[in-house]
Amino acid sequence: MAGDGMNQNFIHDFIDEELAPGGRCEGMQVHTRFPPEPNGYLHIGHAKAIYVDFGTAEKYLGICNLRMDDTNPTKEDVTYVEAIQEDIKWLGYDWEDRFYFASDYFEKMYQYAIELIQKGLAYVCELTPEQMKEMRGDVGKPAQSPYRDRPIEESLELFQKMRAGAFPDGAMTLRGKIDLASGNFNMRDPVIYRISHMEHHRTGKQWCIYPMYDYAHPLEDAIENITHSLCSLEFEDHRPLYDWVIANVSAPSKPRQIEFARLNITYTVLSKRKLRQLVEEGKVSGWDDPRMPTLSGLRRRGYTPVSVRNFSERIGVSKATSTVEYGFLEHCLREDLNLKAQRVMAVLSPVKLTITNYPEDKQETFSVENNPNAPEDGFRTVTFSRDLFIEADDFMEEPEKKYFRMFPGNEVRLKGSYVVKCTGCVKDVSGKVVEVLAEYDPDSKGGNPADGRKVKGTIHWVDSKSCINAEVRLYDNLFTDPNPDSGEKNFLDCLNPDSLKVLENCKLEASLKMAKREDAFQFMRMGYFCLDLRNSTDEHLVFNRSVTLKDSFNAK
Ligand code: ATP
Ligand code: MG
Known about the structure:
12 helices, CATH 2.40.240.10, seven-stranded mixed sheet, binds adenosine-5'-triphosphate, 27 strands, Rossmann fold, 3 domains, alpha/beta
């Protein structure tokens, strides 16, 4: 079950206190929400937030809502809404029938604003944004607000006119009447409504005033009876305003906001705006490009829900901002795939290997274990013949030191079949090796010589008579800089020109013809791979390398 066994963290300590006798939530069901703005695809940072929101609810046998935070009338796209739902389901979380849009609460939010005006806690202000900035004051110097003492009746009338469309964009705002001298600038009579004659993707032209995030979010939470509104740390300074809104309107419940540190990962950016820029400027093939840190990109790359959830659990939840190594995400994937992936042989940069003493018309089969880590996965057969393919770099005419693979005079084991002795090679006019020659030892069936002599190297191979062709895509970090997002740098200047390598002419063992969408494979010695679900067809198989085998990450 998703979120099972979520470790206790500081958020849970707060919740425990509040559920205890006499606590704020005694006898209540824990109710959280995940509130994405539908203006882009979800990324691995959101996976952390989803894990915290849904995982916390689950830990307390509570519930978690999915809410589209669509109070900004930008050009939001239904495809984003659908993609967000798909990604959350893929991670294994379920909002059941609790799927909401913040824009559905516009009327209620408007009524609460009227309530604030009537209580003398909000007023219509006619300063331009520039004037407001000028009068914002400074540390130790209060802000000025010439309209703050305008009569309640006047504000009410103007606010109603604002709604009715009587004024152009920016002509007026509604501001909370809080504290012009507050050390927290968010409390210096913040704007809570602005005029924008923009069409909204769901409410159309119904509204020309829109609530600001800091006013809208606590109301959304209160309307949905959220008990704990978990969000990232940048909202910490906004919490006093969150609490002020909740305290001063007659909303149906009193949620509490708790902040935790955002996830940052090396060698990538985690901002929808920047990710969108990569897509729109064609730096990647789309939101689901396998190099993208989006959930759709990771999925297409071969990441599993389990690996992403394990990652989210193990990076922990705290208030301390930190940057997690990309290698740790890969480590979590390897761990999962190591248990699940079927082992196969695939030659990515092939050269012909001819077994000159093997009968030309003969073909035999060997039975090989699918996954030594999962004996229950059984065995499959691979065919062997005179004409094979091996990796080009498994042959060296003149071996370097400590090279134990194919070179003239040396014996190697062809994984699971025979021991062969290299006898030479054939080159083309340019001197390039086009064929490696070898003789097999008929008394080494299965790969072990009958006389017990030692054979150091083992290489993988495929039978040219049965293998299939495929395209294989290898990936590297999208950025060359570990922190492409920091300081003065322009993240686009750190793009890695070698982040994608396409190998067109790969030779794969025949069993891969049956590869299915959800299968994960370990190509022996080459890494973990999966079918590319977007570009692969029955006629043209395309595989993505999900992750290499070499684990550079030192666990613990
Ligand atoms: P971005 O900066 O990528 O645009 P955002 O915060 O604007 O992200 P939202 O759609 O508003 O994106 O995010 C929904 C929720 O996900 C918010 O509660 C936010 O705190 C959380 N979230 C976003 N990015 C991260 C991250 N890197 N780590 C943890 N939580 C995140
Ligand atoms: Mg946001």
